[in-house]
Design brief:
The chain is an alpha/beta fold. The protein is built from 15 helices and 15 strands.
């Protein structure tokens, strides 16, 4: 029996991100228009409750496959990009026509990770989305597959939905897939599989359950949905993973029905800026720190000074994120640096008062200020699947 009251949990939700997977949107002969019509009707009823809705929609590549008549997702980047270009127009047109029947307008927003890595572009994207919402327009977001490369790829739209939830300060993530939620084993293979109604903490056991349930048309699977849920949980936001093929699923969720799997948020949430540093910015290098610096950071909440640095790995610029590694190779933290990698190599091991005499200038006493630092133990929810490397 689920102890958490979903009705109470949903009372505070004023903005929700709804992620819709490829397995939900595509049928044998193209887009599943019945599902799109059903989800559209549900979203419009949610908006009548004064709740803002942002859609993160997969399906462009899958739609392109069906449109061209190719049975298997292509492996090469150029072919996937071309397939997305073919499918994206049909996907957004289907949404536009469906919402238009209910008197609502939509806007297409295509993002790459690079758009969210740079703070100014991150804030520009945020402002654009808030403007659309203020105009009562429903943003439909997808990864810009036609230009994306591995270096700037989100990985999958589950990951993108987590970033968008943080970007827009939404209070709920609903992840719609083609099964009823998280099971203790793959329900498509094992009839005895049991649905897990509530996850209080994502630990190794939950991670193991998720890894046993792969995806088909999409690039994710249950593991990527659990990782996305973990990221938003660290921002204080719950996730519901449910079956998007069920008629009226969103309406049932917002009525407080026990649909799918509810993943509860962490009590001590990261602030939006630290969440961005930890999960949106890709680390560009590594800094190895000594035991004294490790203790100062972990035990006393201090900033990283040049005196505690043993080694610099990789090339990075001021404002980039880097991983902080202990002498034993353990991930300690991720943070934004105040100096270029070449400059840090010159000042590592010295006192802050000597920075200017060595470099000829000084931005700050700290290589990484504690306000721009996220410790690994701040992201620990009892398991080992939340890594700083992304």
């Amino acid at each position: 029996m689920e102890k958490v009251s979903r009705k109470d949990l949903l009372k505070s939700v004023k903005r929700v991100v709804v992620k819709v997977g490829s397995g939900v949107l595509t049928a044998e002969n193209g887009l599943n228009m019945a599902v799109i019509d059903d989800l559209t009707a549900d979203i419009c009823s949610i908006k009548e409750k004064k709740i803002e809705v942002i859609i993160v929609s997969s399906g462009a590549i899958a739609c392109g496959l069906k449109k061209i008549g190719i049975l298997k997702r292509p492996q090469s980047v150029s072919q996937q990009q071309a397939m997305a270009a073919v499918g994206q127009s049909s996907l957004i047109m289907a949404y536009e026509e469906a919402f238009d029947r209910h008197g609502h307008k939509v806007a297409q927003v295509l993002l790459t990770r690079d758009d969210l890595t740079h703070r100014r572009r991150y804030l520009n994207a945020r402002n654009t989305l808030f403007t659309l919402l203020s105009w009562k327009i429903i943003p439909i977001i997808n990864e810009n597959d036609t230009v994306v490369v591995d270096e700037i790829k989100f990985g999958d739209n589950d990951n993108l939905s987590a970033m968008v939830t943080n970007l827009t300060e939404s209070q709920l993530l609903v992840n719609l897939t083609d099964i009823d939620g998280l099971f203790d084993m793959d329900p498509r293979i094992y009839k005895e599989a049991k649905l897990i109604k509530t996850v209080k903490k994502i630990d190794r056991k939950v991670s193991r359950f998720a890894s046993s349930i792969p995806g088909f048309l999409g690039t994710g699977g249950m593991a990527s949905k659990i990782k996305a849920a973990q990221k938003v949980a660290l921002g204080g936001v719950p996730t519901i993973i449910a079956n998007g093929l069920k008629p009226g699923i969103l309406k049932k969720i917002f009525m407080g029905h026990q649909e799918g799997t509810l993943i509860l948020p962490k009590d001590a949430a990261l602030c939006t800026r630290k969440h961005w540093i930890a999960f949106t910015k890709s680390p560009k290098g590594e800094i190895v720190i000594d035991r004294g610096a490790e203790k100062a950071l972990v035990k006393h909440g201090k900033s990283l000074l040049p005196s505690g640095i043993k080694e610099v790995k990789g090339r990075f610029r001021l404002g980039n994120s880097v991983l902080l590694i202990s002498e034993t190779g353990k991930e300690i933290a991720v943070g934004m640096v105040n100096y270029h990698s070449t400059d840090i190599k010159k000042i590592m091991g010295v006192k802050s008062v000597d920075i200017e005499s060595i470099l000829g200038f000084k931005h700050d006493d700290e290589v990484i200020h504690r306000d721009n630092l996220v410790l690994a133990n701040q992201m620990d929810q009892g398991g080992d699947i939340c890594h700083l490397r992304v």
